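Side project, low priority. Logging it here so it doesn't get lost.
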Amino acid sequence: MTTAPTPSVPSPTLAEDWHEILEPLLLRMPGLPEDLFRRMRKAKLTFGNRVHCPFLRPFFLSPEDEQRVRGVAETVAELGERVVVAALADKHVFDQLHLREEEERLARIHVDFGPASTASRLDAFLLPDSLKFAEYNGESPAGAGYAETLAEIFSELPIMGQFARKYEVHHYSLSAKLLEALLQSYRDWGGSAQKPQIAIVDWKEVPTWSEFEILQTRFEKMGIPTLIADPRQLEWDGKSLLVDDKKIDLIYRRVLINDLVAKPSECSALVKAYRTGAVCVANNFRCKIPHVKAFFAVLTDEQNGSLFSLSERELIRKHIPWTRVVADVQTAHYGEHVELLAFIREQRENLVLKPSDEYGGSGVTLGWETSETAWDEAIERALTAKSGAWIVQERIPIRREVFPYIAQAGRVDYRDMLVDFAPYLFRGKLCGFLTRLSSTGLANVTSGGGQVPAFRVAPRSPATT
């Protein structure tokens, strides 16, 4: 485990310097906001009919903060892989994750190559004196292609040229790192093709299809043949997985395991090929184990302490919010014995309720924004839900910053936004970030949030300015 360095206090002058350049630039170039929107649409940076980024500033982080995030995030990813192994070997650990029967069956299909999560993402809030993770997307994190493309667009804006005279600015080559990770998992699987045929697989109807097109173009420019396929296009001939008679070597799986369970006949070719070991699938089906939000309950529950070293338990205490699966049980809250349901009712202002296996902010109830009556109703929904477990999680500090926002008719005003900072991990190594902004307590594209690129920024030495 890497020890996290002492946090640095980010200089407010980064944003101030950007805004000082932006304001006179907008007077000289009033068409800049529309030009940014045009570039995004041309680059397929849309979610439905909305552009991803209605903001005119990136998110900045220092080299020290990047190092701080790297050490902790890579350790959490390592713990995710360890919990996969422990859960498959120990039913008591597995049962704490509350996977459905069919999900467990898929997770227990034998594979002996690479990590469960070739690609994963942590959702975090980074502050000068705190780094907390809200959840771990260990299954099929979206947005890497969008984030890299958006950073390239911002790098080409006239304002960035002026900003870069004073600061060294770095953005992240996510698609190359993602492809490298996929190919390493393919080699671990036993693949020998120098240029394996990749299929990016998800439903044709998903709003993120444009990201698959971005990744396809980038993978092919790097020399790897790549196609995009709906699961219904896959064919299993008993030996090979095919798309339009073309043999597939490596599946970059973006279709969710929830869909494999809900639509078994439409996904049968993929599952059969995976079961027989005829194709490399990344992420493999074991990734569901750390993906569910109950994974944080496993990490923070003292009964599982033997799975982790002393330093890892301290890292968990510092960076992972206390989490439990909602049930009528006794448990511990930082060593203090509590009746869980009574504790949830009493501590509404400090707790969040959410389904263990949803995405896009679905079902999330923030206790501090909820009346006592509505909170009791949410607890009852959690206890009686038939579609899966719910978790309760302690409230964590959030980051807010002021960003220039492009309003109607190209007008730019300044808005105070929540900043959700999400590190991408490819084969357990930090490779870049997805940064989402919201004016509400939830920050994700599917709930109406926006996105900005993340840049690592450091002052230039006097000799280079």
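Brief comment: The first helix runs from residue 13 to 28.
Revisit when time allows.
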